[in-house]
Design a protein that fits this description.
Chains A, B: Pathway: Cofactor biosynthesis; thiamine diphosphate biosynthesis; thiamine diphosphate from thiamine phosphate: step 1/1. Two copies of one chain form a homodimer. Chain A is of the alpha+beta class. Chain A contains ten helices and 13 strands. Chain A folds into two domains: about 10-155, PurM-like, N-terminal domain (60s Ribosomal Protein L30, Chain: A, 2-Layer Sandwich); about 170-340, Phosphoribosyl-aminoimidazole Synthetase, Chain A, domain 2 (Alpha-Beta Complex), CATH 3.90.650.10. The two termini of chain A are about 25 Å apart. At the A-B interface, helix 1, strand 2, strand 3, strand 4 and strand 5 of A face helix 1, strand 2, strand 3, strand 4 and strand 5 of B.
Chain lengths: ~350, ~350
Amino acid sequence: MIENKNQSRTSLEQLGEFGLIEHLTKDFPIQQESTIKSVGDDAAVLSFEKEKVVVSTDLLIEGVHFDLAYAPLKHLGYKAVVVNISDICAMNAVPTQITVSIAVSNRFPLEALEELYEGIKLACNYYKVDLVGGDTTSSQTGLIISITAIGKANEDEIIYRSGAGDNNLLVVSGDIGGAYMGLQVLEREKQVFLVNPNSQPDLSMYDYIIERQLKPEARTDIRQLLKDLDVHPTSMIDISDGLSSEIFHLCTQSKVGCNLYEDKLPLDPQFINTCEEFNIDSTTMAINGGEDYELLFTIKMEDFEKVKANPNLTIIGHTTQESEGLHLITRANTKIPLKARGWNPLANNEEE
Amino acid sequence: MIENKNQSRTSLEQLGEFGLIEHLTKDFPIQQESTIKSVGDDAAVLSFEKEKVVVSTDLLIEGVHFDLAYAPLKHLGYKAVVVNISDICAMNAVPTQITVSIAVSNRFPLEALEELYEGIKLACNYYKVDLVGGDTTSSQTGLIISITAIGKANEDEIIYRSGAGDNNLLVVSGDIGGAYMGLQVLEREKQVFLVNPNSQPDLSMYDYIIERQLKPEARTDIRQLLKDLDVHPTSMIDISDGLSSEIFHLCTQSKVGCNLYEDKLPLDPQFINTCEEFNIDSTTMAINGGEDYELLFTIKMEDFEKVKANPNLTIIGHTTQESEGLHLITRANTKIPLKARGWNPLANNEEE
């Protein structure tokens, strides 16, 4: 519904691979001291010295991870960077560089890629990360984006998934579930648009959750916040596939169980209202919906006082002994087994 | 023609994304001291201290970069790693880690991915690089492989494309053109197979050039060789898209011209014989065919004696002043302008 039919079209073939990379990456300034050589050679050259290097990578496929019917290319570029930076944040590290590879079919003119790179540039500027490499090629169907993010941290700052102990507090940043409900609204509007292309939806009452879906942010601020609070989490992960799925990862790797409290889940009023409108259970959505890119971590019980009143952080439960398993404690004080129902990108692989 | 119709099939959906990653990466031992944390967290953690980090990335798409009709998955996995390691070699660095992301359609059972990872593992073992991360997801058509390679080198060891001076010698490792002619043989056999599926081609007379195409090697040995010869190249690049195209990159970035000598090109007899059989000009193939993954570099004239008798290295020309341009000096001693006709992956993007 956002597509502009009158856009000018420049064929990618005219530019060639190297002309294209050069054109798309020419306005990316170097912002990190650790970047010695950026785009333009066989490889980028980086310098970290005493700090450790953290590396994460993601592959985003049109029709699996995004739908260009409602994700504008600029937002998509921004989000693709954020998703990867979020993984660096989940190690309690500072994001410093990214590489971006794209494959596109001939459906995409140069102007579309410029828009995509506009979004990538916005994110690079906002998060102060350098675009240092990549690859452009053709695909037979649609758009494929592969991003590798690099970050740095001192060894003693890095937080793994496996460090949670028994009786740690389970903490989440921000609020959860919004991105998933934003997607539900966009999916609904897409169906309306397909029936009546002239409809002009008023989405203002969903602005927060739609932004959570289309233009999420990575919690690069949490590292400093925790430093200021003098709290060093015992384990950490980011919420990409859904809270329950991430809790399973943390607990499995840390060999602990956990109790999650339904009444503690941080939910935005717009998220709750939209769940009511869609007549679906907000707890189920908050636990299983993904793409919030908030951080989930555990802290020692003794750090409770430092965290409890912070508006950015919510204590949502605590770890237990591994043998006790993972449970949700409902508002009615019933203890039910927690299930990981996060998004499975492999459950959606019908060849067209 | 290599497809095994009786292979067993395990659906990827049953395993889920994390089960799949765990299954595919479980037999990859850590071989590099610099790998602190490998697969299994939000990001890998690496330690390089005084050495600089080099990073390169590539995206390989079925139908654009490879054809599963004649590229067995194991070879493809091996080659995908080699292609990326070659970029690290082109910086005169030591490859240390890779991340591998794949997207597959439901056409691929688990057993196919196991074969692909068999090849990846072979390459990791042979080149002593650690697989430290990745992503698996679904695609709507075919197989997509995205690899990021990481390497290390001291700052004064790193060689850029831009360092060639006027009157440097142009040197290439190994021989060139073979991979491209190997592809021509495979393409021909595929056509024969399509007409007569019972044909059993005898490819033994093409074994070298077919291996160059299906299972190339990265020249990790050249770094040590140059050290032993006490030669420090002024510029370097690897030959992925074709010699002429790479010469253009080196010369453009170094702001020099060059004379390339037709009679100096290192060609394997099997390559020459096959060109004759196909009735095509071997020089044209050697200059424009890609995927040899040999190294092309420039050295100072004073290093001539150190290099001239080395069986691994061939001096194929010299740089000139930029204003003189780039030329091929033919066997008949005619000077003709060199053209970059390297492979353009964007010239092949018809959406199906």
